[in-house]
Amino acid sequence: MKITRLTNMYVVLIVATIGIVFYAGRKVMTHNTFTLTSTFWQDGGTLPEAYTCRGKGISPQLQWANPPVNTKSFALVCFDPDAVQKPGWTHWVVFNIPATMTHVPEGLSTNAKLPDGTYQGFNSWGNPGYGGACPPKGTGSHRYIFTLYALSKDAHDLRLQSNTTREQLLDVMKDCTLGQAELIGMYEQS
Q: Residue 150: phi, psi to the nearest 5?
């Protein structure tokens, strides 16, 4: 009986020691959430008219926080999965956004290459830059999903050109995406 208690005590002591050693060897990680926001609408809210075909059709202001460590560049896509054309409609493809950036200003130029090295790929209209939300009347409310990708590579590493489409971008960055953040704007033409 004494031997069994002694053996049990040693087992508990060994397990506790292993647990302490394992815990001490771990890095305690705090996860700040990678976020994408706009000062002009809340996630899931109505996309302001300025960013639609009823308004100026300009690109929205977006900002982000807490990107993953080792981010080398960002890519941004705006996609309408509710479009009549399936699988959806691409409104914006932006990539090679410098890792030091924390925002995209409102009304970004539609040039294929921007002065900071950022590229704008082709939207579903076949043009570089942002194309405003413009769902056909009677098709209900559409979701405009802005997705920001934190990448471990830049455009040179990915071998991308300014005429890149959403599908091409998604294909080449699938193995180098460190994280993504999303912001949805809703819009319906009446």
A: -95, 125
CA 91 to CA 145: how far, in whole Å? 10
Tell me which fold the domain 30-187 belongs to: Phosphatidylethanolamine-binding Protein (3.90.280)
Considering only CA atoms, which of 78, 58, 188 is closest in space to residue 136? 188
Q: Do 61 and 104 meet the contact criterion of CB atoms below 8 Å apart?
A: yes
**Pairwise CA distance, residues 174 & 170, whole Å:** 6
pLDDT digits (tens, 9 = 90+) for 70-111: 999 999 999 999 999 999 999 999 999 999 999 999 999 999
| C-alpha gyration radius of the chain | 23
Predicted TM-score (pTM) of the model is: 0.82
Q: DSSP letters along 52-90, please?
A: BTTTT-PPPPEEEE-PPTT--EEEEEEEETTSSSSS-EE
